[in-house]
Amino acid sequence: MSVFRPVAADRTRLINPFRVMDVLERARQLELAGADIVHLEVGEPDFATAPQIVAAGVKALELGHTAYTPAAGLPALRERIAGFYADHHGVTVDPSRILVTPGASGALVLAANLLLNAGDTVLMPDPSYPCNRNYVHLVGGRAVLLPPVTPGSPAPTPAQLDTVYDGSVKGLWLASPANPTGAVIRADEVKTLSDWASTHDVHLLMDEIYQGLDYLDDPAAGALDGPAAGALDGAAAGALNSPAAGASDGPAAGTMANLPTALGYSPNNLVVNSFSKYFGMTGWRVGWLVVPQALAATANILAQNLFIAAPTPAQHAALRAFDADVTEVLEQRREAFRQRRDFLCDALRSVGFTLPWQADGAFYCYAGIERFADDSEAFCQMLLEKHGVAVTPGTDFGRHDAHKYVRFAFTNSLPRLELAAERLQLALR
Ligand SMILES: Cc1ncc(COP(=O)(O)O)c(C=O)c1O
Questions:
Q1: Angle, CA 333 vertex, CA 332 and CA 338 arms, to 5°
Q2: Are 200 and 165 in contact (CB under 8 A)?
Q3: Is-same-fold flag (10-48+326-428; 67-321)?
Q4: How many A from CA of 428 to the centre of ligand 1?
Q5: Residue 84, φ and ψ in degrees, nearest 5
Q6: Which of 27, 161, 274, 413 could connect to 390 by a Cys-Cys bridge, CB 3.0–4.6 Å?
Q7: Can you name the CATH fold of 67-321?
Q8: Per-residue pLDDT, 365
Q9: Can you say whether residue 119 is alpha, beta or left, with left for phi > 0 and alpha for psi between -120 and 50 degrees?
Q10: Tens digits of per-residue pLDDT, 50-67?
Q11: What pTM, to 2 d.p., does this model score?
């Protein structure tokens, strides 16, 4: 009698495991054996969720808000997110275009299913967030990774896009600020890329999950200026309004979101965002996706089928996340991240790492190890095993020169970063 042996579907073989999880697991083993490990590998804020948000979540549970919400999310939360775009970006987004999802991850899965046919190509930078190419592969699409024009460039250029463009290209997926580089795509570049996408019948999907966590002093980088307004045509022209339009009673503009949203450049652009990073709610699992109006109804049907809804108590908690007293807490945390960024970048340079990408946002430095090694996985293993510093190899994020880079996440306190710097000095001097 033959014995049934379960076999995973062929497409699962296209999906790579996260090497950072191996680093984390090994770090935990070492800790169990008594080692002191400085964790700079994990991409989530080390701050607990702001107490006001926690209280709102507890209250929601006490009030019995434990049933499903509509698939696209609590109407009040969708309104609130629309208010965020009006207040902070001067962009009017109809709440019907906003779908609340289980994290940005849910938004990306939804977007891949919404937009891609088998055989479609999506262009994305190398390096970039590793899950994105897997979402594309899982729906039968093809992710094509574009190496940086020069190390340190935050986005592909139109000329580079032209060289790889063919009729199968249906999507351009970017993130700003980006993981793993911390690089920010400036306003004029977002507009140029949005225009390129429009003229090639390609959708632009911008992952703005790290918005709010930027450390730029130059407000012009994020200004929603003339050219951006001009990018909207016809019926969409009304989408750009003064900040007062549709404003909720949120905090004053000038905090939380200094960078431009891709929604300001074309009504066809899609935006992914989340309460995970700036709002410090990774484990609550709430994010959102903004889709073009013409796709909202289909996206809603897909959301019903894929998730039914994002977690209800978490959505109630997220309703509190835009309030001024919470922004105050989050802005203090942003300042702490900025100090850590300043310290870590200096420390890494003085040890001998190169930093081609400007860590202007998120909480990552993507550092070149060419002075020390040419195998980032072995290098990370050596730092962890011999020196108690856990970092992530570049091979998690792409292929192009990935063996020459490691990602440092400054999701740990300044004293712990100082300890890491001492250990790096010792290891690499
Ligand atoms: C660029 C980027 N997008 C999406 C995600 C997923 O975030 P979420 O926790 O909201 O699902 C991450 C998580 O690290 C990320 O770095």
A1: 95
A2: yes
A3: no
A4: 32
A5: -60, -45
A6: 27
A7: Aspartate Aminotransferase; domain 2 (3.40.640)
A8: 98
A9: left
A10: 999 999 999 999 999 999
A11: 0.92
> Locate tokens 């911390």: which residue?
182
Q: Does residue 287's CB lie within 6 angstroms of at least one atom of ligand 1?
A: yes
pLDDT at position 2 is 81
Cβ contacts of 351 within 8 Å, gap of 6 or more: 421, 424, 425, 428, 429
Residue whose structure tokens are 């013409």: 294
CA of 108 to the centre of ligand 1 (A): 9
CA distance 319 to 86: 16
Q: What are phi and psi of 357, to 5 degrees?
A: -90, 135
Minimum CA distance residue for ligand 1 atom 7: 104
* Backbone torsions φ then ψ of 118, nearest 5 degrees: -55, 135
Ligand 1 close to Cβ of residue 134 (< 6 A): no
Ligand 1 centroid, distance to 220 Cα (angstroms): 26
Residue 95 confidence class, pLDDT cut points 50, 70, 90 = very high
Dist. CA 399 → ligand 1 center (Å): 20
For the chain, domain boundaries: 10-48+326-428, 67-321
Of 7-16, 201-210, 295-304, 375-384, minimum mean pLDDT range = 7-16
Specify the ligand 1 atom closest to the Cα of 286: 10
Kindly state if the Cβ of 103 falls inside 6 Å of ligand 1: yes
Closest ligand 1 atom to 287 CA: 10
Residue 227 has pLDDT above 80, yes or no: no
246 within 8 A of 78, measured Cβ to Cβ: no
Ligand 1 centroid to residue 210 C-alpha, Å:
9
Find out whether the beta carbon of 175 lies less than 6 Å from any atom of ligand 1.
Answer: yes
Cβ 49 under 6 angstroms from ligand 1: no
* CB of residue 282 inside a 6 A radius of ligand 1: yes
Amino acid at 397: F
Atom number, ligand 1, closest to the C-alpha of residue 210: 1
**Tens digits of per-residue pLDDT, 333-367?**
999 999 999 999 999 999 999 999 999 999 999 99
Tokens of 291: 């889709």
10-48+326-428 is a CATH 3.40.50.720 domain: no
Dihedral sign for Cα atoms in the order 321, 324, 325, 330: positive
Give the distance (Å) from ligand 1 centre to CA of residue 234: 34
